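REVIEWER CHECKLIST
Item 1: Sequence provided? yes
Item 2: Single chain? yes
Item 3: Sequence as submitted:
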Amino acid sequence: MQVEFVTVDVFTDRKFGGNPLAVVSDARGLTTEQMQSIAAEFNLAETTFVLPPGDPAHTAQVRIFTPRAELPFAGHPNVGTAFVLGSKGTYNGRTVSDAIFFEEKAGLVRLDLIKQGSAVVGARLAPPQPVVRGDDIAVDIAAAAVSLASSDIETSHHRPCFASCGIPMAFAELKTRAALSAARPRADIFSEHLTADRATGFLLYVEDRSGDFDLQARMFAPLFGVPEDPATGSANVILAGLLASLRPEADLMLELRIGQGFDMGRPSSLAAVAEKRNGKVTGLSIGGRCVPMIRGALEI
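Item 4: Structure as written out by the authors:
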């Protein structure tokens, strides 16, 4: 049995940048076990498997796997998969419209294609659930998890914490760009304090307005087989919602250009937007460009 796949670099406008993603655009006939094995074989942060939707009003069902586990939702896999289907123009015998709806374990995910003329160049998603802030994380534990000192953690805006919009993540702001570069994940601390049921990964960020960015970020998910992720749409869209919720304005449109992956040689650019009305975050999106890389077939 041959299974066709493509890979794309997501959240970048150049080859060998961004976050690589493998997309199996026709996963019919594959078992869950085979999907997990294929994701482990690719050994990318995520691999997606596209299936016909349960509701014909939607575009497709999408399943997302890291090398070790299936995820209910993730950012760059959605953006890259929408780009692949949008570039093909049809799926399951139907034209792929500019508004795409993916059925996922966390809920229905809407994506809008980004075009340059008639060409599809990327996509923008809205998460399937509103942002919910969870418990705080002790500063010393947060610092130890990424091999930093407690004094490297910035707490004037918020303490390290858990938050989710369909996938749970941990967050901490750092004081300096140097501390962000020095961070290294410690799987032993993750296993004890940032367990897989509480956080898929740990996003660190720092204010850095160089290079047309507002923030620089890094994300570690060692318990899911991802030592470091070059670009994390799900975590950064949660971050935009979290930061908007902390701002004093009752009404706000917060637009953030976030750089990620620079410390691992995979520069990525993510555009996040959070809308706040009457003191409540009412809208979130994150998007970016994609570049096709590899086409091939798996022998199953």
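Item 5: Key structural point noted by reviewer: The chain is about 20% helix and 45% strand.
Item 6: Recommendation: ____
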